[in-house]
Specification:
Elements (H helix, E strand, L loop, with lengths): L22 E5 L3 E9 L5 E10 L4 H5 L2 H14 L6 E5 L5 E9 L5 H10 L9 E7 L8 E10 H13 L3 E6 L1 H12 L7 E7 L4 E7 L2 E8 L3 H12 L3 H11 L3 H8 L2 H35 L7 E6 L7 H9 L14 E3 L8 H15 L8
Parallel strand pairs: 1-4, 3-13, 4-8, 9-12
Antiparallel strand pairs: 1-2, 2-3, 5-7, 6-7, 9-10, 10-11
Helix pairs in contact: 5-11, 6-7, 6-9, 8-9
Length: 377
Amino acid sequence: MSILQKFKNRIPSPAKASGPGLIGLDLGERQIHLCQIRPLEHGLYSIVAKASIDYDGGRKALLEDPRRLKRMLNDALRKKGFKGRRVAALMPWEDVRIIPLTYKSSVSDVDAEVVRMLASRVEEPIDNYVVDYVPVRAKPGDEEHMVVATVASRKSVDRLLNTLIGCGLEIDSLDVAPTALRRVVGALYTGEAADNVLMINTYPQESYLTVISGRRLLFNQSVAFGETMLLERIARELDVSLASARALVVDHGFDKQPLLRAMGAEDAGDVSATLLEIVKPHFLELVNEINRVLVFTAAETHGVPVSRICLLGAISHWPGAQQTLLSLLDFDAPDGQTEFTQIFRDENEDTRIPWHGLFADISIAMGLALRGQIGHE
């Protein structure tokens, strides 16, 4: 489901091999990500066009300067070969509340029950919000069923809609990040690998833990773990600027062995070890949050464990960050389908981009672009 119910009937049917679909638009805090995908046969997809645009000043300032935003979007759409201007756009994380709800399986009108429960959880009258929900996997004999509801104020929805329409875009739908990620998981993983997948989206100030269970959204929660937090701690401990802290992370990261082989210098490994020691308390706090999510997931899925953990966003580009996190979690990454290019093919430049080089940044834009192309929607 989309967060905009009035667009519900305009969702295209799951497509076979055909032309390009919607343009996925993820307007982030520092970058704009765009992606357009064409479905192929046998569960494969082709990336028709993609773009990542860096900008300064933050999303709020950009939305308040529609002329600047329009220039940036028009330039990307023209230069990168996008087809049409019809988009599925992301509602910013901070403008959406995602609330898990449990109700008796005997309830006949689930829509009314969800609205009733949500009305007691929001500050204003429920009519001031746009409400949607997706069901979580449940067995027919369960006494209770669960849904994950999304709530956004009508003002924030209308504001984003008006801004994007003012940029000359045709808005098919507004969507939320967990739903977009659910589509990506549905495209990438099959069989047991799709049982429970944990996606960790890292941003400057916070991160989001999202569990996709059997291709359905099971859990979503923000945690206090962000790139800026880690950089500020490094800068404070080493008495350097934020820019210098970032440069140290980019140059050294936490994975000292490849660096030692490349540079032949033991002190390079010492830098990596020092950086890891500085940020390790924050990683351990994240691990504690993740462990709670893992327990919750196992309980809700009758003991089925998380099969994959994917680190996305800014921190995923820190050398050794993924390995450090998995090591602290004592989680072994499974063998098998882990390469982005096994499912997605690139029609333009950069034709064989590995998972970590593309997926970490444009995964949400990809999920938006997949709207209507995944058979279980």
